[in-house]
Amino acid sequence: MIIGELAEIIAIPAPDADVWSAFARRFSELVPGTKTLFMANDRVADCDIPLVQFGFDKGLIAEFATHYGNRNPWAPFNRQLRSLIPERTEQRLPASSFKHTEFYNDFLPRIGESDAATAMKIWNGDQRNAEFIVHYAAARDTRLNTLLDPVLKALGPVMSEAFASLRIRMDRERADRRTAMVEAMVDPAFVVAKNGKVLAVNAAGEALAREAELVRIAAGDKLEVLSTAAAQAVAEAIATVVRGDRLAAGSELTRLGAPGRTHTITVYPMMAHLGAGFGLLSPSEACVLLIVRPLLQTAAQPVELLRERFGLTAAEARLALKLMGGGSLPEVSKALGISYLTGRSQLKSIFAKVNVRRQSELVATLLSCCGWML
Question: Is the pTM for the entire model greater than 0.85?
Fold first, then answer.
């Protein structure tokens, strides 16, 4: 009965976060005394990140994501999980074995009767895994696992298939957004992966590549910049983004071309090393957006273009441009010589005029609607 009801919740194709939350909640209701958590194991960042959960205090989960995930003594236990096989912490790494740690003395007491767990890897990716964890009091370990073990083994294939389906959907949606973004641009635009592969290109970019005078798309869909110095600049920019170092968005990366036909290559970093939510399970391949512009166009005044396109004031346009460079609102406000409260007020007005609700949406909209002008 438990298995059938839980399997039915995630039986729909590519269940979203709300469906997984409902699954976590219903699991804890059907197995009293448990708390449930879906978590991503990031092997690149070497940390564990919660996805959705039920039964834990949200503030404590946030602390885990920002602090204790990097201090979790159970991390080695999580790394060695075998696919679709439930594993018990009390058998492999009991909490009593790390009583001297900050995690045991500060974090565990606050989450309440959750000093043991049964975990199972339900999805395995190139850089990240996903696991389902059932937490409970260590005193109930043996008794609870007479139920948990067969239930998890039966649900494992269903959860694994649902996660795989979710990843396929996220990849497709992400590719569609990349295509829509570059197609909205007038100048040649290329979304490039860290290995140089072109993931999206607009009609102007395809035409420029066919000319094969400045750039071309070579074997394996690799972007080839036909200037040694410019190619090196692009490679260095990609390496910078891959390392996680800051690269100023919208900056002129390099110039190429012959006298009278000089172009600039402008770069926008796109790679998110950890991402958010279930996006963690399907990290974006996109590394940078490269826009090739005739040098003459760079003389345009972006502040005026934003004022005309969205009705922003000059101050709002300057703030929006700074935010496109990748800085936070406090950093940008300080750079512009205004208070944080003034910056927040201007940003609220910008959101209303551009019809977005978050900074990430603002940057994406400015790129897709007028990135070619900036």
Answer: no
